Amino acid sequence: MGTSAMNNHLKIKHNEKFAEIRSSIAIAAGLSIFISSTNKSAPVPSQKIKKIEEKQLTLTEIIERKLMWDISDAKLKEYHYLIREMIALDNKPLSMMDRVGFRRLMQKALPRYKIPSRTNITDKIVPDI
Question: Which terminus of the chain has a lower count of CB atoms within 10 Å, N or C?
Answer without folding.
Answer: N
